[in-house]
Amino acid sequence: MSTPAGMQHPSMANSHVRLLDNVVMIDPDPTAALFAKCCPKSWSRSHWWCPSYLADWLLLLILGIALLLEVTLWDPYERTYQMATLSGGAYSFNDNQFQFPHQEDTFSIAVTTIVSFLVPILFFCAYCLLQRFLWKDSAAVHDLHHSLLGICTALVIGYFAWIPINKSVGSFRPDFWERLNGGDVDEIKKGREAFPSGHTLMAFLGLGFLSFWLSGKLRVFQSTRGNVWRFFLAWICPMTLAVAQAITRVTDNRHRTVDILGGAVLGMGAAFCAYHLLNYPPNYAPDCDRPKNRKYGFNDYLFSGIPSCTRPPVDEAAYHVPEPPPYVPPAYMASSSGSAPPYNYPEVEGYTYRK
Predict the structure, then answer these.
(1) Model's pTM, two decimal places?
(2) Helix (H) or strand (E) holding 85
(3) CA–CA distance, 150 with 282 (Å, rounded to integer)
(4) What is the pLDDT of residues 8-45, one digit of tens each?
(5) Which one, of 270, 65, 50, lies nearest residue 150 by Cα?
(6) Is 261 within 8 Å of 194 (Cβ atoms)?
(7) Cα-based distances in Å from 337 to 158, 340, 341, 343, 355
(8) DSSP characters for 212-244?
């Protein structure tokens, strides 16, 4: 159904407005026309791909390389702290919070990366296969792209905030005294990188993004769909795994409680920004399970075989303003006198009304 002659949507004055599938597309990517001329036709015909995504991936690559150089070349701040006092030929410790023994990691950085980063990616890929071949949803590749772009963005945002804080604070680890006695320069440097916890940051940004993603797919916060088992799958399971990794950083004498709390806050903040602000609508939105469509300015449910919500068609009924009801005068105005009837004041003892 097309827009009737002589009728125009109020926002059609915008040059970046198109009609597609009976829906007005507002503010599409202005580079789409240039992209259609410079790139293959199969790319330009895509209902979601636009050149700004190439800029996103290129920026993430540049920032990732910069972060690797930063974490390698930036030495942590060396704060002076009198940990022990020499008295009578023997040392007396001033503070025992840095005297814990050095232990092996329960979750190494490799295991943390696999559990918190690669496992969510496997979830995204498995869902894409189901979406494409079982449910015949044309938005499968779009959804997978936004999932991968989102979790990579969360990783870059999280560590872009973590490295300056970690290197500038120079907080001691609980096993710093044993590292200092060992004499290994690299271990001493690592002993000054306690706040915030990098392992906890990785755990919460990866599994936190997975929780937001599952919450959108399962519609956990929809008033008509939310229930306990959806919340358990979307939030309790991933967050339990993230908290378990954070707790081992304390039991392994790598961090204090404040260190893992700082890493958890940074990780969840990065996951929230990457998911809600950039790639997906909020979890309470009616189309929260569909990725954002930057090319046309609407979410991808418009192109799905199973739309998550309906939009009114662009026709006369969608923009018709109903006529107001006819004015009916009060009964006293319809009378022959045309004046209101006298008001009967209540009788009060000892008081006479002036007429």
Answers:
(1) 0.72
(2) strand 84-87
(3) 14
(4) 444 344 434 443 333 334 444 555 555 555 555 555 56
(5) 270
(6) no
(7) 79, 8, 9, 15, 20
(8) HHHHHHHTTT-TTT--HHHHIIIIIHHHHHHHH
